[in-house]
Amino acid sequence: MSAIQPPEHRVWWKQPIEPLEITWIVVAFIWCVFMFVMMPYWHVFSKQNLANEAYRSTPEQFIAKAQAMVDKYKVREETEQKIPVVRPPAGGDVYLVARLWQWWPLLELEAGQTYKLHLMSLDWLHGFSLQPENINIEVHPGYEHILQVTPNKAGAYSIICNEYCGINHHTMTSKLYVVAGK
Ligand code: CUA
Predict the structure, then answer these.
(1) Kind and range of the H or E element at 32?
(2) CA-CA distance, 5 to 151, in Å (whole number)?
(3) Model confidence at 91, in pLDDT bands (50, 70, 90)?
């Protein structure tokens, strides 16, 4: 039998199963069950597996909310593109727009405070990757992702896009500032 000829036995699923095949099916099944249990376990008892919410939204709605935050809490501008740096009040909602090929605006958060970080793409799929913390979220168009973040260490973190999004994917980098709390 080969891939271009029809199978010898038309009803192939009624053939006896090879011992090696069933062994691998059992191994894979046990691994699946193990991971199924461990994912929630790691979420509760470890620092892995973020809990996030996602809601349907539109680019217009999202950019309006981000713009309102920028208008209110902008502290300065950075880079040649004059990207606003925003320092929103501690504990509030913060918005980060992903678009070709930019993260907008730059956020400045306070260590030890919890924020609701809203993420959305205005065009197509991007990946939010916070380094060196290694937090990864796929950022989809049409969905507003919300995650609770409590930065615990001051510093400048890097944001990179880790989903290939076209010719300038490699330039889609940004920063997240965390400043020491009062
Ligand atoms: Cu955005 Cu890659």
Answers:
(1) helix 19-45
(2) 60
(3) confident
Give residue 20's pLDDT. 94
- Kindly indicate the confidence band of residue 182, based on its pLDDT and cuts at 50, 70 and 90: low
Closest ligand 1 atom number to CA of residue 101: 1
Q: Which ligand 1 atom sits nearest the alpha carbon of residue 164?
A: 2
Beta strands in the chain (DSSP E): 52-56, 74-78, 83-86, 93-99, 102-104, 106-110, 115-121, 126-131, 135-139, 143-149, 155-161, 173-179
As a whole number, mean pLDDT of residues 110-134 equals: 92
Check if 169 has its Cβ closer than 6 Å to any atom of ligand 1: yes
Contacts of 82 (CB under 8 A, 6+ apart): none
State whether residue 13 is helix, strand or coil.
Answer: helix
Which DSSP category does 174 fall into?
E
